[in-house]
Design goal:
This protein has 3 helices and 5 strands, in the order E-E-E-E-H-E-H-H. By secondary structure, it is α+β, with helices and mostly antiparallel strands. It has one domain: Arc Repressor Mutant, subunit A, CATH 1.10.10. Strands 2-3-4 form a 3-stranded antiparallel β-sheet. It has a two-stranded antiparallel ribbon with strand order 1-5.
Length: 94
Amino acid sequence: MSLLRASPDVSCKNLGDESVLFDAASRTAHVVNQTAAEVWRLCDGTRCLADVARSMGERYPDARDRVAADVEEIVAAFRGLGLLLPETAPAPKG
């Protein structure tokens, strides 16, 4: 289980139904829809992909059957754009 963690170089600004993810390191802006912005906010270093999908499924129960695939696709896009830090394992308990 790897945790999803947003790059500290990326900021998120809401603009109505869309948001802009601005990567200060590459000086690149990415416009995302509301769903992708919600996934982005959940990539806070405390959740793995399954946790994010579960949380989104709770928010959108009518679409629960396709939420996991959508979240996976969004996270893959974030990774491809370099917006997420490399995957990290959770700290051991105890």
